[in-house]
Records
---
Amino acid sequence: MKNTLLKHGFAFLLILAMILGMLTSCFDSVLGANGELGTKGEKGDQGIPGANGKDGKDGSDGITPQLRINDVTNEWEVSYDSGKSWTSLGVKATEKGETGNTGANGEDGKDGEDGKDGSDGITPQLRINDVTNEWEVSYDSGKSWTSLGVKATVNDESGNSAKELARIAYIRYLVANNANAPDYMLYDNSDSWIALNCGVVEGSYASKDDALAALVAEESIKYTVIQTEIAGLHSVCRRDKIVDLVIFMGQSNMSGRGVASEAPLVTEGHGYEFRAISDPTKLYSVSEPFGLNENNPDGVTENTNKTGSMVSALMNSYYNERGIPIVGVSCSRGGTNIEYWAPDGAALNDAINRYKAAEEWLLENGYVISEKFMVWCQGEQDGDEGDSAKEYTQKLDAIIDEMTNEAGTDFCAVVRTGNRTDNPTKYDTVIGAQTNYCKSSDKAILASALAAGFINNGMMKSDGVHYTQAGYNALGTDAGKNIANYIKTGAEPTFDDPEYNNTYPTDVIPSEEPVSELEFLFNQDNENGINLSDIGTLSSGALTVTADSNANNGIALMQPIHISPDESFTFEFIVDYQNPGNQNPGVILSSGSASGQFIFLNAHQFRLRFADSNNQAESTSLTKGDKMHFAIVYNADTQSLKFYQNGTEIATTTLGDISELTFKYFLGGYNSNYKFIGTIYYFHYVNEALDTNEFHAE
């Protein structure tokens, strides 16, 4: 019967021979059938000449070799990597053994009987018993174990135990035969660090650093240390075999609507594309449009809409900071809301499969993956659809969880969406949701907020939603640098945030919840959660702002003031605004963009002006004074807007359809030409139309 295992003593010695072969030593004899009588040998069991066996050597920690019979060669083979590769032991499974060597000092042995055909082979498993310190074999996949009677405690001439020798043998095997093995290895034997070069023991060192230095003494070759999953082992790999695996997900501003020829070139070896859909057989050099042909009709498809993205710039910046290339996987589609990417849907399943295919290919081809994460840029569609911050946050969290659990990503880097040119506040809810989520979550970081300023610096396309290639280049450069620094330091990225005119994440993040009333008395620092001393000098219940102290162009409100078109409101403030020779407007509140919402004092004609996206109204000329009380009162029922100075109505106008108001900045907030200079004593907003007798009285 083909592929059978010889029974009785022959099987025992065959297994023992294989064990000793794995530990770089073997017996000098194998079984023989009908062997000659041994000289002075001990009486053999069942007629086979006996030989004094050497003590077995300990196997590698936690590694169970697998055995099989090759159907073609009919030889026993061993695998040390869970069946990925097999090495012949040079022992046939169906032929009789050679004549045994003459035993030493033993009694004459009896002729043995011919062995019978064994039953169908079962791949044995091997282990060392923790109690008896003997090698054991299992023929039933680990359900039961039988001792082979071989101890694993022998020391060699250098004093190395069998266990240490087994570990060295295992490392030698890895380096010599395993495609995934690194070039060098270190391991700690409790007394010292052993350094190995291509399987050869280089020496014993007092510390890991000393052992590493011995291996990488040649300065022309750069290496890094990567912890393996094998206890006590460290691998030292060539940098060109170490990569970070990243999937780029989201909608059109992730896919890219720029101009490919204007994107930066990625230096060979500084970044790669794995084409999981169109050609999952190799790594490609990065070129724009990134992911152009990655269209899956059963998942995510973009056809030919990708024209130039942020990915090339991101990879360049990332490599410059980290020194390790990204292997990028594309999975994005324009016009998709966050629900499109929901768990168990075709899109997210496609993303998971693409990512896992890239990981499998890299490991099979000898790469070491150092970092694994996703980059997310999406949200415009949800802003257009008016999704709530709560809905968006919950869905984003579910997507990140699914990528973590199913694809194995470690975190998500969010490239925050920008503003819409024709309606700068349209995406405020999504922007706030992404900001707050990254600030509070340990699953995500805010990689860049740069896009929020694109509407003011010419980096928006004429469609008002997509960025120019210059914008993509700037955004990718910023995100790549911030992500790399986060990986290097573990610290949350810190940068200027043009949306809130503050520093992320050290300053208070504006809340998504609307505020119905806000009052500043200017009698203490950090009033209502913002640091007023950042914009001026607090003294005796007043805030004095000069041109120099207002260099930040206003201060972001902790809770932006959101007013729906059908809501009444009142703003009142007491100021000393003489405007000596200054023609710039004195901005009290603003949305942060030139075409947004404002309440300001017209410096040139000294009038009070209110503007939303649909209307602009202005009072008659004001009377200058040291402490002036102004009020703007809007009645939503009548759509009338009234201006007051010192409690007296000075102008009334009927507005057209009022837009949704969002005031984010106090005493400025657009640029150096739109800031307040003077002294302010009081500010009050309330979500109702007040009568004059309800105005603030000092």
---
Amino acid sequence: MAKARKHSRKGMTQRVVKRPAISVGGSPSVQRATPVATASNTALPGLVWQAPTWYKWLLALLVAAPPLLGVYGHKYGYSPDLHMASVIQVGAGAMLLLFFLLPRPRSTLNILSMPVLLPLWCFLGWSVLSLLWSHNNYEGSIKLLDWGGALLTAFLVTQTFNQPKDVDRCLYVLFAIGVVLASIGLLQYHYGFDLIDQHYPPALTFNNKNMAAQYLLLLIPIGLLMMLRISAPHWKILLLGGSMAQVILLFYGTTRNAILCFILQLALLLFFLIRETMKRWHDRGFWQRFCIYVGVGICILFLLSLLSKGDGSLITYTIQRLETLWKHAMSYSGETRFPIWRNTIEMIKDHWLIGVGIGNWMVEYPLYYRSAMVDWEMGLDIQHINTHNDYLELFAELGLVGLLLMIWGATGVARRGGQMAFKLDYDGRVVMVLLLVAMAGLALNAAGSFAFEQPAPICLFVVYAGLIEVYWRNYQGPRLLLSLPRFGWRGSLVASTVAAVLFASVVWHHHRWYQSEISFRKATIASRRSDVQGMLIEGLRAKELFPARRRLRNFVAMGYMRRGNYSNAIDAFNEVLEGYPNMLHTLTNTITAYDHAGRSAEAMPLVKRLVSARDTNDTLYLAGIVSFHAKEYELSREYLLQTYTPSGGRLSERERGVVVAVLKQLGVTPPPEPQYTPKRFARH
């Protein structure tokens, strides 16, 4: 007893576990002694809660299931991202409530003893603080809810998974879900499986093949590496076959950025295999099994190639796709993203320290879309909502402070994971390389996409960081830097109450969000059918259900305009402009409503704001006519004469006739008709 108490005071016991020999390469490896942290019944400080097995299974399912449960979002007409976000956030809230309600010994929750997750919590805290100077808090709150749900899930993983077998359980559940998703994708691609909506097949359950591809980057390394730890041949073949199906599905999607990221992942995996092979080059059994596995992989590729389209050659198909990567990268997509990135740098120069606030890049970008390069894609009908580069966008939103926090987080993951990839035993090295390779693939993909704005990829990415935290804690032992007070029954009661309030708030929020989404979709359908009554009813209902979604007021305002009720339309448009003051199409519609209502003089501040943001011929024409009605004749003459600029676009014959008539009334001789030149980047 005295000896046990002595260990208890030290906070951690060390025991040597002789694991069974792991068959790698055909011969048993040397038995390894591994330090394992164990918790006693007296609540050792710094050790995790000994959760029941059913709770661990539920948590593993919460990590893996959101993409699969996204099918229900398609079934009921919801956005799949909205449904996945709801599953993650509501599920994390429920698991947190159970975490405090279940019986537990008096324990201590360490906060600063998490070197991997601590930078992510600090980054989230700075993001929340940026709402103080954000113009639009709603757009930022959407990101914060996704990030908060992901971090809460990762925190529960670190507090619940206290053995390597718990990490294995989570990874195998993820692999099983990945096989199901790959099966759905192959059915979509080859047989037109249309029970799940998809804009660009194969989209799995994500509605878009680009989103599906970036999620596959997190799943593919699981099967490719976990099969190295299993000795049973049939399980190895199953893991290899599932991974090959996911890889082929990735190439079928033809997502250029994701394919390049997978090539990087493959290079990292080959480096690990070569490193491990050099340790066992003298082992004849290893080379025999290696040849067998390569042969099985070739057979699986051949069988899957029978399903491919065209001439039936998967190799030919893959080569054709790879040949078009560079050409497509420099085509329409590249030409439209380079100006966005370059103009975002100008935004960063103006807000380099603290940024414009989380989620507010899209609010401020209309002021910068011509600052360095002309973004021809940006117009009255297209409003960019992301940069297709998460790092530039987050730098613009959170400034230098946010960038340093991101670097701190990336350094923490790479440092701890890299150390353990060299120092752990073989099983641990495999898992650590798996996690690092998967995270590296998504991190690189985020440089050309918006992976960190999607709920499912960001949740799995942060959970992988939590799994690295689990291995680091078991390897390094507890390091008590700062902790919350010990939880007795009073502390558990308070924590359970807070968790219950949080859970109820999240459920209420998503319930209202779903109802608002239904009204939004109905209003969209009514707008396409020119159903003014439906637009008004559903738009007003969406406003009641979710007042923060100011963009939904556009349906209400357009409904009033089509009815000729310009006063109410102006009020609705101004509500939108309060949250999005630089939205070009809303500015245009508001100016038009003022003009039709006979209040052109009140529209002049908006006219000047519109022209300063966009001086193409269509906006100059509107500005000139409204200025003429407001008796601002000097401005009207200036604007209308600028409509003769050839590079500003061509007006219609009716509009050109109106310009000529107004200029004659102003005593100005219209210049000759210009020779128009096409835009530099034609829309495809």
